[in-house]
Write a structure and sequence with these properties.
The protein is 21% helix and 17% strand. By secondary structure, the chain is of the alpha+beta class. The protein has one domain: 3-Layer(aba) Sandwich (Glutaredoxin), CATH 3.40.30.10. It has a four-stranded mixed sheet, with helices on one face. Helix 1 links the parallel strand 1 and strand 2. The longest helix is centred in the first third of the chain and has 14 residues. It starts with 6 loop residues before the first strand and ends in a 20-residue tail after the last helix. The model has no long low-confidence stretch (mean pLDDT 92).
């Protein structure tokens, strides 16, 4: 039997303590993003893709972070307004949304 999903959207929902210098994706609205991705996938009739909550993707500085597997495309600073575009362009159309693709390497905050 083939796997039930051809792709996974991993939405970082990690929560760090308030005041963490790295910030965290959860405090930037990623929990809502997961629900919005699920709704948009359903609205567009996409059945073979799963939107999953993920632990820390280690991209806190540029979060909310979303990783698409097995495509190996990571998105940064995703907002609710970006969800429909990601599903339409990337998941359905096969074209990553270049303006949101994570720039690597991520600039890290200096440690004191």
């Amino acid at each position: 039997m083939p796997p039930p999903y051809t792709r996974h959207l991993f939405i970082c929902t990690n929560r760090r303590p308030d005041g963490s210098p790295k910030g965290c994706c959860a405090s930037k609205g990623s929990e809502e993003l997961k629900l919005l991705f699920k709704k948009e996938l359903d609205a567009q009739g996409v059945k073979a893709v799963r939107a999953n909550a993920a632990g820390c993707l280690d991209a806190c500085e540029v979060g909310p972070a979303v990783a698409v597997y097995p495509d190996n495309v990571w998105y940064e600073r995703v907002t609710p307004a970006d969800v429909k575009e990601i599903v339409t362009e990337h998941i359905v159309g096969g074209r990553p949304v270049e303006r949101l693709v994570m720039k690597l390497p991520i600039a890290r905050a200096k440690k004191d």
